[in-house]
Design a protein that fits this description.
The chain is an all-alpha fold. Helices cover 79% and strands 0% of the residues. The longest helix has 38 residues, at 197-234. It is globular, with a radius of gyration of 19 Å.
Length: 235
């Protein structure tokens, strides 16, 4: 099974991407480990957990992408997509960890800046790669329009998830462990938007930001893919 998965990664040109993501994540963890040793402080250890959460949607989309030929029935797709959507907001949420960046007393500020950017960029890249794979899967399974509708909905959900996680302090698993309290908080804000302006301001601004970054990401990857195909044809 491991051999088949590895072969699938090679065939679908995923091995290089997966390798650099692992190396980049390990670099972030190494930066944090050095900081812990140097300062004798574990104040930023939450970064490791948040990065792990950002890996979950990527792992789900990767498994789905590698096994798309085996998934023939749409009824099997829906629960997988739902689970992915449940964890996807954890990837862009890592942006808000920048709130914790402040002038340190026992290590250069530039070091913490590199540390923060490293974790945040890894989280965003994992999220966008994951979303791109899910979008491609949906487009093949249904249509291009359906793929983009889902993508916009996912970015909006992720933006709202950023607000829920940062300001209401809810987590993905609270949908199962504490669904009634979570639902109450959400319904109150949905039914009375005027009383909760921050909910909508945070969600809308992050939605615009994430959408612009994702569109840029898609254009870059599309141009790169087109150039690769042109070289192959020329060869």
């Amino acid at each position: 099974m491991i051999s088949n998965s590895f072969n699938a990664l090679i065939i679908k040109n995923k091995i290089g991407t997966l390798t650099i993501l692992i190396v980049s994540s390990l670099f972030s963890i190494a930066l944090l480990a050095f900081r812990v040793v140097y300062t004798s402080s574990t104040s930023y250890s939450f970064f490791v957990w948040n990065l792990f959460l950002a890996w979950i949607p990527y792992g789900i989309s990767l498994l789905l992408f590698l096994n798309e030929e085996q998934i023939k029935r749409n009824i099997l797709v829906l629960p997988i997509i739902f689970i992915w959507l449940l964890f996807f907001p954890n990837a862009p949420y890592i942006l808000t960890d920048l709130f914790h960046l402040k002038q340190p007393h026992n290590i250069p500020f530039w070091y913490d800046l590199v540390l923060f950017i490293s974790f945040v960029s890894n989280g965003l890249i994992l999220g966008f790669l994951s979303l791109s794979d899910i979008q491609s899967f949906i487009e093949k399974k249904f249509s291009k329009v359906t793929g983009w509708i889902f993508t916009i909905a996912a970015l909006l959900t992720g933006s709202f998830g950023i607000y829920i996680g940062r300001y209401l302090r809810w987590n993905s698993w609270d949908i199962i462990s504490n669904p009634f309290a979570l639902s109450r908080d959400l319904i109150v804000r949905l039914l009375n938007p005027i009383a909760h302006p921050r909910t909508y301001c945070v969600t809308i601004l992050f939605f615009v930001l994430l959408t612009l970054i994702y569109l840029t990401f898609k254009i870059i990857t599309k141009d790169s893919s087109s150039k690769k195909k042109d070289r192959e044809v020329a060869f």
